[in-house]
Amino acid sequence: MLRRGAAWAAVADLLAAYTRRMRPIIDPSELRERLDRHDLRLVDARFSLADPSAGREAYRVSHLPGAVYLHLDEDLSGPPGEDGGRHPLPDPDALAATFGRAGIGPETHVVVYDDGDGMIAGRVWWLLRWLGHDCVQILDGGLSAWREEGGPETAEEPQPTPREFEPLPRDAMVVDRAWLLEHLADPQVTVVDARSPERYRGEVEPLDARAGHVPGAVNLPFAGNLAGGRFKDEADLRERFAGVARAPTLVVYCGSGVSAAHDVIALELAGVRGARLYPGSWSDWVSYRDAPVATGPEDAGSDESPRPN
């Protein structure tokens, strides 16, 4: 008989062939066709930095049928410290317990949504993938697109049956500050900054201790992945990421490790898999006084101005 960890891994392996073909996003119309599937779990990840309680309150008023709510600070991040960034990765066992309480098991198809741009939903998508759960998508266009297409909503809060979620963290998906410092001059490594051009250039910094960017980083703001609130088509995304697509190692960061996942998703849609995330991101980088910082237009970047993270 397989022991518990081996059993989970076996299920994950069986799902791998299918999930490798699964797009990281799902259209509202396709989701509506799957709403009655027993293996579906919806996650509402709405969150506002300006008002951390706003997402949960909005969920209580109305949400997609069967959706559970997960909070960025309380459920999807570890406790912040002096270093590590504003939204550190949670402990894998604690995060696995959170997902299990939400009714997510090894065979569950998870669809995550937020207010629309996919920034917070992308965090949940990435965390599930990090823990070895590949059967996850984000709702393209989020709640806004769902409502535009007349999707059903409810105020009824589900009581999901807890599931066993065994974490299988993929260390290759992340880098830390020490790794990045060691590889700053490595021609095999390309670093992507997903923040707004103004923050990248160091003209403004609304949240962190210092302004600027990691030396050598290329600026590809996550808002540039979208058109009309939805992800651009694959051809446009391939063109957008053409300058970095062939890098042997891609590392993406943002302000606190949240919106960087959006670039990872867009890269995957463009056919570029394996981009690594720096979870602490800029907020971790500049928590060290000796951190090297560059300012100015090292890379032309984009004129998009996404909300901070």
Overview of this protein structure:
- By secondary structure, the chain is α/β, with parallel strands linked by helices.
- Helix content is 31%, strand content 12%.
- A five-stranded parallel sheet has the order 1-5-4-2-3. A four-stranded parallel sheet has the order 7-6-10-11, with helices on one face. A two-stranded antiparallel ribbon has the order 8-9.
- Helix 5 (119-130) crosses helix 10 (260-269).
Distance between the termini: 46 Å
Which class best fits the helix and strand makeup? Answer: alpha/beta
CATH class of the largest domain: Alpha Beta
Taking all Cα atoms into account, the compactness measure Rg is: 19 Å
Strand content: 5-15%
* Lateral strand order in the biggest sheet: 1-5-4-2-3
CATH superfamily of the largest domain, by name, is Rhodanese-like domain
**N-to-C SSE series?**
HEHEHEHEHEHHEHEEEHEHEH
> In the CATH classification, which architecture of the largest domain applies?
3-Layer(aba) Sandwich
Approximately how much helix is present in the residues?
25-40%
Uncertain spans, ≥5 residues at pLDDT below 50? 16-20, 299-307
What's the shape? globular
User: How many structural units, i.e. domains?
Assistant: 2
CATH topological fold name of the largest domain: Oxidized Rhodanese, domain 1
User: What composes the largest sheet?
Assistant: 5 strands, parallel
Please give the number of β-strands: 11
Overall average pLDDT: 92
**Count of helical regions:** 11
